[in-house]
């Protein structure tokens, strides 16, 4: 992505930034395909003729669908469901891809002192998806009871054997599985000879090469007014990962409830309204946005380094932004 060395600046007040993807595309030979995966709409954009790109695009979709089936919490016939069914009783031999995601989740959890925790799946009474029961918050008593099953350190990994060692434990890999799935899609396109492509997974974006001779342009939206595009950043061979309280949410008795949960309480995180992280390597930012949504502005400088750019906004419209980050007008 060609990121410069970062300097940091804190803003006491500012406009509210959160990520989303917008493209400025030129030329007729740009192919766009979209499907619903991982509970969101995923889009592949690549320059070229449809007939030439068809095999590569089909292979990328197939690989991402394979990984989604393996890692999704929305299925009852995959290893994630099987691990929950065996929780507290016996281990399960799982695919290397799932082990890799769990190992990375462990790393992020340790780094963030538990602000990121894939065992938040135990808070099973929240309903943020369309088509689910009428949304209302679980009772405090239910959340306190379920909190006893939330602890990333209770995931035991021995080679390809995995055990959730407390009854009632469940995984929710939504905060850490999306980027590796998108990365696998990009890698498949690369293996089929594509040099230029972008995959947008609902605001988490991986890009390689360029479009119409220029870097890809990724827009950042205001989460308090998501219809408004505040500016764009140029991305070439890089990643933008986003977390925010304006997607997958509901309002109950005048209060906004969103899907990024604080592992300690089971309540929606209150640290940030939204954050965008930009880096050349998706591994360096995977899961980090979720952890920062819990911990807030004070943790950004500790948990990001010179290879990561960030823009984040906390309650009270307090903004933190990498000084080197420049937003172009939309």
Describe the structure in your own words.
- This protein is of the alpha+beta class and 330 residues long.
- The chain has a domain at 8-51 and 195-322: ApbE-like domains (T-fold, Roll).
- The protein has seven helices and 17 strands.
- The strands form four sheets. The protein has a nine-stranded antiparallel β-sheet with strand order 1-17-16-15-12-9-8-4-3.
- Helix 1 packs antiparallel against helix 5.
- The two termini are 20 Å apart.
- It is an enzyme of class 2 (transferase).
Beta fraction of the residues?
Answer: 25-35%
DSSP helix count? 7
Q: Please state the structural category.
A: alpha+beta
- Give the total of beta strands: 17
Order of helices and strands: EEEEHHEHHEEHEEEEEEEEHHEE
Order of strands, widest sheet? 1-17-16-15-12-9-8-4-3
Q: Roughly what is the average pLDDT, rounded to an integer?
A: 88
What are the segments in which pLDDT stays under 50 over at least 5 consecutive residues? 1-26
Gross morphology: globular
Helical content stands at 10-25%
Write the layout of secondary structure elements.
Blueprint: E1 8-11, E2 18-19, E3 30-37, E4 40-47, H1 50-71, H2 79-85, E5 92-93, H3 96-111, H4 140-146, E6 155-158, E7 161-164, H5 178-191, E8 197-201, E9 204-208, E10 216-222, E11 225-235, E12 238-244, E13 249-252, E14 255-258, E15 274-279, H6 288-295, H7 300-303, E16 308-314, E17 318-322
Antiparallel strand pairs: 1-17, 2-10, 3-4, 4-8, 5-7, 6-7, 8-9, 9-12, 10-11, 12-15, 13-14, 15-16, 16-17
Helix pairs in contact: 1-5
């Amino acid at each position: 992505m060609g990121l410069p060395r970062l300097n940091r600046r804190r803003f006491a007040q500012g406009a509210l930034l959160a990520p989303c993807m917008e493209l400025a595309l030129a030329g007729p030979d740009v192919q766009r395909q979209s499907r619903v995966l991982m509970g969101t709409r995923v889009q592949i954009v690549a320059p070229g003729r449809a007939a030439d790109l068809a095999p590569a695009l089909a292979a990328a979709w197939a690989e991402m669908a394979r990984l989604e089936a393996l890692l999704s919490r929305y299925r009852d016939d995959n290893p994630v469901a099987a691990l929950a069914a065996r929780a507290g009783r016996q281990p399960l031999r799982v695919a290397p891809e799932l082990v890799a995601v769990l190992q990375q989740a462990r790393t992020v959890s340790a780094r963030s002192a538990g602000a990121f925790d894939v065992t938040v799946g135990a808070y099973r009474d929240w309903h943020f998806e369309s088509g689910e029961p009428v949304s209302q918050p679980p009772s405090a008593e239910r959340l306190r009871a379920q909190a006893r099953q939330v602890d990333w350190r209770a995931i035991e990994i021995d080679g390809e054997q995995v055990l959730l060692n407390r009854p009632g434990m469940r995984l929710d890999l939504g905060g850490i599985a999306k980027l590796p799935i998108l990365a696998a899609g990009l890698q498949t396109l690369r293996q089929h000879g594509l040099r230029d492509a972008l995959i947008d997974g609902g605001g988490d974006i991986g890009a390689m090469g360029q479009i119409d001779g220029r870097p890809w342009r990724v827009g950042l939206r205001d989460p308090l007014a998501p219809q408004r595009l505040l500016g764009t950043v140029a991305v070439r061979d890089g990643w933008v990962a986003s977390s925010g309280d304006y997607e997958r949410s509901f309002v109950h008795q005048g209060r906004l409830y969103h899907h990024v949960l604080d592992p300690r309480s089971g309540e929606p995180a209150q640290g940030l309204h939204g954050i965008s992280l930009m880096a050349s390597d998706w591994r360096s930012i995977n899961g980090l946005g979720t952890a920062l949504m819990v911990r807030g502005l004070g943790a950004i400088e500790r948990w990001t380094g010179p290879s990561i750019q960030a823009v984040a906004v906390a309650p009270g419209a307090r903004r933190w932004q990498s000084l080197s980050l420049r937003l172009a007008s939309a």
